[in-house]
């Protein structure tokens, strides 16, 4: 067992544990904080996968914006969040069943795939993934269209969110 | 070296946990958090496949970046919806938002 | 043209006049009567030509003028119809032509042609007078013209056609056709003034009563045809083999031979048509019709047709008449004839209506003729038939003239409640209406049988002679009847014309116009002179001067010329005595009659007997109780109420009820539960199923998701197993 593998197991355990606590915490703020932990764990995973830029983006966007936004949302809808009551729906058994079946199905399906136990190929020294990513994002031979469309989507979402949440009084 | 399977299993597990959260939580924002977990699991899956299958082609990373953007947009709109809903119905428990029924 | 063609044409003008008047000229009164009188004139002309040719023909009886055509196809043979003029029909044609023409002319004046239209006259009621203003502005009421003038002439034209057809026909079938046409016209004309309820009742009574007789006559005709296969006179009545065959064949009814039964059945038709007892009840009521109708139909022609028919079939009636033993039909005729003669003469004595007296007188005289035939007096019956037609028509037309005169007085005084036909309201009219008086008197004397100078004497005397020779009891009865006849005749003349006018209306009576008085005069001539053609050869003093042409001529109709009876004083004396005594008695009793006093006859006979006579022995009431009321009961109660409404309608209602029950059953027990029920069941189950299933839609997104994912997992597993693992 190499050091990387141990780190991986630890981080995976942390993330999965945090994830489970997200979905089962009684207090919604606790849930949000555990979400932050899970997101952090995923960022570390990105580092392990040698996608450092994405790890930073993950922290900045997800934790820095989305999780904060979620906490704002919790605070704005506070009244209901504070009252107790069953936090699971009446069909949580079925949900659990589905989750388990899905996990098992996915795992079993992937296990029968030949590339399942592949080892990563070493990267070349001169491979600068960040630079390549930048080029890919804006290059016409690359993914500029997707990039631009994503921008438009963000704009739409921006306006949409404004409109929907506009308080007409 | 970490085999691909570990990442995939990890992503699958995270995804299932997120799914459970979506399906079983009453609070709408908790559902949203579950969705975030699922999206993160997808991202991990994408990057793992990028690294292990086609490291020199950045398509995987671009895909993950796009997913980031989409997730952000979706959270923004979703929360706007919840706030609007909260103002109207004074509740955001998912099983109380049931007007479109028989 | 040949006589035969002329004979065919004789009935034609009146029926053409009928159709033209009905279809075209109804509106124009002058045109209608011109057509009608012209047609009667043409028929008269044809009849005279035929008659004179007939007289001039030798042995007309053996070789009559005949012409026939095949008409009805019966199997492989034909029923032939045609015309025949032998001596009997020649003399009948003579008097029919004259009386018809006279009456047509008379009708022009009777219905007040040339007078203005009445003030309140309506079709269907008698005219009531018109108010006219003269030069000074004085208003008078004058007689008004009959509103239905043209219709009258149309009907009598049709009637004339019927009578001519009957006379010229050579077989019983067309005779019956003419018979029935006259019956129809009698019905139409009795009820001419159909607005009067009494006229309506009378027309129905006449038709139905004669119908009773006609039914039996038709049976007789049918039976005759069955036995012999023909209805032609020459083939039956002039054919001894046929007659013998009929006499010898039994009819299995009452022991009569076929000839007797046929004869009796045919005679029953005459009883109806000629108003003999017991079917006499219609004739007095028939006086509701206008007087020309009474004259023509009910005196001169139609009722004579009944007698003509029995004279025609006399060979059949008398078949088997040997050695003075009367055959059953002849016995019946003698009895009915004599009885009716006396019976109705007694009733006539107590009547006050001028026309009723004459009606009963007609019945009585017809009885004379039938009785004469019944005892075998063929020529006597025919003779009386002819003379009676003339003087009875004369008497009726005269009475019409009298009524017109008194009605003139009614219009003058304005009292419309007075009956212008009641003899008690008359008197002294001989000064006011001289022509009418003299002609009426001549007719009355003829009726009473005044000796030597009236036709009625000669014919009645011959009847007495035949009765005396064959059945003296008949002479007794007929003699009594003749006495009463003379009595009521002079009663009538005395009350109407003699003495002083008893009412204001009678005082203001005026003589009638020439169209009415000229026919009276012409008929009076015949009433006097016609008798002279039949003076018996052995008559004292005057016999032999003029040969007994009538006896020779008419007697030749039969196969065997009837024998001339030896002269006997008894019948002559009887007729002289009864006639003169009766005439004197009537004048004596009634000469001082005052208005309001009781009738001398009533004083003599007593109130009860008089009441019985006046009310015609209550025969009408008897028939009403025995026949009419039960018939009404049968129609109204039995058939209409019980059979039709209760039984038949009851059955129908029952069917309807059953249908209703079946319908309700089908509806409630089958349609609603089963048919409706299944449809409703399907609808209801769909609803319930839907209600069950829609609970899936809770509106909760998470549940939808769970459902979707579970389904996807299940299907994926299934497909995976089927498509991948099973390979």
What topology emerges from the helices and strands here?
The complex is a heterotrimer of chains A (169), B (102) and C (727).
Chain A: H1 3-24, H2 28-48, H3 52-76, H4 78-82, H5 92-111, H6 129-138, H7 144-165
Helix pairs in contact in A: 1-2, 2-3
Chain B: H1 4-24, H2 28-53, H3 59-89
Chain C: H1 3-9, H2 12-25, H3 29-55, E1 65-74, E2 77-85, H4 87-110, E3 130-133, E4 139-142, H5 149-168, H6 172-190, H7 197-228, H8 233-236, H9 240-248, H10 258-273, H11 282-285, H12 291-300, H13 302-312, H14 314-317, H15 328-348, H16 354-374, H17 378-413, H18 429-432, H19 434-448, H20 455-470, H21 472-497, H22 504-507, H23 514-529, H24 549-555, H25 569-590, H26 600-605, H27 607-614, H28 619-693, H29 701-725
Antiparallel strand pairs in C: 1-2, 3-4
Helix pairs in contact in C: 1-3, 2-3, 2-5, 3-4, 3-5, 4-5, 4-12, 4-17, 4-23, 5-6, 6-7, 6-12, 7-10, 10-13, 10-15, 12-17, 13-16, 13-17, 15-16, 15-21, 16-17, 16-20, 16-21, 17-19, 17-20, 17-23, 17-24, 19-21, 19-23, 20-21, 20-25, 21-25
Kindly describe this structure.
Chain A is mostly helical. Chain A folds into two domains: 1-82, Four Helix Bundle (Hemerythrin (Met), subunit A), CATH 1.20.120.1200; 129-169. Chain A is 74% helix and 0% strand. Chain A has helices at residues 3-24, 28-48, 52-76, 78-82, 92-111, 129-138, 144-165. In chain A, helix 1 (3-24) runs antiparallel to helix 2 (28-48) and helix 2 packs antiparallel against helix 3. The radius of gyration of chain A is 20 Å and the shape is globular. The mean pLDDT of chain A is 87. By secondary structure, chain B is mostly helical. Chain B has a single domain, classed as Helix Hairpins (Orthogonal Bundle), CATH 1.10.287. Chain B is built from three helices and no strands. In chain B, helix 1 runs antiparallel to helix 2 (28-53) and helix 2 runs antiparallel to helix 3. The mean pLDDT of chain B is 90. By secondary structure, chain C is mostly helical. Among the domains of chain C are: 192-320, no CATH class; 331-555, no CATH class; 622-696; 700-727. In chain C, 69% of the residues lie in helices and 4% in strands. In chain C, the strands form two sheets. A two-stranded antiparallel ribbon of chain C has the order 1-2. Chain C is elongated and about 160 Å long. Chain C starts with a helix and ends with a helix. Chains in contact: A-B, A-C, B-C. At the A-B interface, helix 1, helix 2, helix 3, helix 4 and helix 5 of A face helix 1, helix 2 and helix 3 of B.
């Amino acid at each position: 067992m190499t050091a990387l593998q141990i780190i991986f197991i630890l981080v995976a355990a942390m993330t999965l544990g945090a994830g489970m606590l997200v979905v089962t915490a009684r207090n919604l703020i606790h849930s949000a904080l555990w979400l932050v932990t899970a997101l952090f764990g995923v960022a570390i995973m990105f580092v392990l996968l040698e996608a450092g830029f994405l790890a930073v983006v993950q922290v900045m966007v997800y934790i820095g914006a989305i999780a904060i936004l979620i906490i704002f949302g919790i605070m704005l809808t506070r009244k209901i969040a504070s009252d107790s009551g069953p936090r699971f729906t009446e069909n949580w058994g079925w949900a659990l069943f589905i989750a388990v079946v899905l996990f098992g199905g996915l795992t079993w399906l992937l296990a029968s795939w030949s590339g399942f136990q592949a080892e990563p190929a070493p990267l070349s020294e001169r491979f600068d993934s960040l630079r390549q990513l930048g080029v890919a994002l804006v290059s016409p031979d690359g993914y500029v269209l997707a990039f631009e469309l994503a921008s438009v989507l963000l704009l739409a979402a921006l306006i949409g969110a404004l409109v929907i949440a506009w308080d007409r009084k | 070296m970490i085999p691909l399977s570990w990442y995939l299993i990890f992503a699958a597990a995270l995804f299932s946990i997120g799914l459970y959260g979506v399906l079983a939580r009453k609070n709408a924002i908790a559902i949203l958090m579950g969705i975030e977990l699922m999206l993160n699991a997808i991202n991990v899956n994408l990057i793992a496949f990028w690294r292990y299958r086609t490291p020199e082609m950045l398509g995987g990373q671009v895909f993950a970046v796009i997913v980031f953007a989409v997730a952000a947009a979706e959270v923004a709109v979703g929360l706007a919806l919840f706030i609007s809903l909260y103002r109207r119905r004074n509740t955001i428990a998912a099983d109380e938002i049931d007007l479109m029924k028989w | 043209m040949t006589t035969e063609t002329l004979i065919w044409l004789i009935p034609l003008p009146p029926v053409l006049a009928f159709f033209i008047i009905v279809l075209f000229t109804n509106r124009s009164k002058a045109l209608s009567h011109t057509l009608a009188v012209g047609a009667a004139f043409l028929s008269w002309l044809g009849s005279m030509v035929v008659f004179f040719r007939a007289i001039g023909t030798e042995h007309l009886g053996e070789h009559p003028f005949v012409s026939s055509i095949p008409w009805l196809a019966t199997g492989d043979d034909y029923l032939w119809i045609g015309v025949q003029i032998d001596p009997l029909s020649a003399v009948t044609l003579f008097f029919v032509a004259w009386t018809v023409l006279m009456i047509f002319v008379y009708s022009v004046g009777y219905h007040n042609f040339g007078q203005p239209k009445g003030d309140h006259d309506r079709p269907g009621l008698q005219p009531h007078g018109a108010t006219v203003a003269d030069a000074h502005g004085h208003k008078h009421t004058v007689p008004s013209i009959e509103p239905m003038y043209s219709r009258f002439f149309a009907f009598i034209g049709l009637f004339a056609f019927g009578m001519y057809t009957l006379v010229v026909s050579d077989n019983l079938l067309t005779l019956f056709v003419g018979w029935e046409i006259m019956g129809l016209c009698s019905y139409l004309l009795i009820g001419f003034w159909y607005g009067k309820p009494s006229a309506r009742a009378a027309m129905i009574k006449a038709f139905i009563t004669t119908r009773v007789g006609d039914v039996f006559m038709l049976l007789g005709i049918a039976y005759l045809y069955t036995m012999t296969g023909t209805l032609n006179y020459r083939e039956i009545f002039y054919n001894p083999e046929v007659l013998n065959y009929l006499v010898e064949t039994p009819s299995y009814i009452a022991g009569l031979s076929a000839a007797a039964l046929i004869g009796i059945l045919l005679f029953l038709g005459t009883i109806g048509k000629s108003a003999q007892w017991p079917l006499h009840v219609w004739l007095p009521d028939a006086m509701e019709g206008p007087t020309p109708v009474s004259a023509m139909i009910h005196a001169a022609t139609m009722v004579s047709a009944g007698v003509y028919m029995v004279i025609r079939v006399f060979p059949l009636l008398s078949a088997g008449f040997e050695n003075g033993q009367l055959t059953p039909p002849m016995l019946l005729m003698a009895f009915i004839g004599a009885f009716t003669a006396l019976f109705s003469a007694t009733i006539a004595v107590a009547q006050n209506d001028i026309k009723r007296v004459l009606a009963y007188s007609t019945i009585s005289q017809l009885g004379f003729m039938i009785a004469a035939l019944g005892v075998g007096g063929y020529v006597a019956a025919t003779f009386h038939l002819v003379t009676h037609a003339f003087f009875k028509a004369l008497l009726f037309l005269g009475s019409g003239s009298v009524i017109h005169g008194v009605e003139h007085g009614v219009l003058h005084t304005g009292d419309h409640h007075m009956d212008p036909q009641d003899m008690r309201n008359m008197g002294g009219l001989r000064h006011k209406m001289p022509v009418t008086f003299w002609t009426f008197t001549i007719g009355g004397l003829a009726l009473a049988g005044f000796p030597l100078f009236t036709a009625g004497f000669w014919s009645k005397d011959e009847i007495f002679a035949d009765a005396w020779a064959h059945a003296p009891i008949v002479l007794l009865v007929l003699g009594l009847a003749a006495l009463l006849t003379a009595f009521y005749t002079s009663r009538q003349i005395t009350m109407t014309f003699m003495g002083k006018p008893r009412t204001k209306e009678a005082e203001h009576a005026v003589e009638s116009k020439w169209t009415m008085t000229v026919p009276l005069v012409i008929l009076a001539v015949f009433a006097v002179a016609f008798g002279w053609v039949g003076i018996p050869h052995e008559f004292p003093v005057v016999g032999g001067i003029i040969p007994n042409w009538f006896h020779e001529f008419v007697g030749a109709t039969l196969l065997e010329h009837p024998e001339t009876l030896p002269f006997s004083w008894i019948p002559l004396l009887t007729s002289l005595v009864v006639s003169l005594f009766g005439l004197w008695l009537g004048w004596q009793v009634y000469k001082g009659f005052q208005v309001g006093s009781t009738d001398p006859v009533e004083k003599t006979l007593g109130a009860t007997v008089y009441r019985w006579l006046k009310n015609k022995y209550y025969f009408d009431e008897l028939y009403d109780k025995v026949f009419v009321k039960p018939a009404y009961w049968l129609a109204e109660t039995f058939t209409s109420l019980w059979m039709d409404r209760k039984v038949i309608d009851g059955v129908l209602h029952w069917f309807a009820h059953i249908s209703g029950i079946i319908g309700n059953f089908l509806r409630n027990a089958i349609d609603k539960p089963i048919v409706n029920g299944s449809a409703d069941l399907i609808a209801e189950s769909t609803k319930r199923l839907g209600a069950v299933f829609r609970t899936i839609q809770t509106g909760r997104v998470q549940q939808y998701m769970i459902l979707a994912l579970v389904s996807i997992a299940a299907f994926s597993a299934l497909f995976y197993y089927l498509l991948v693992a099973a390979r």
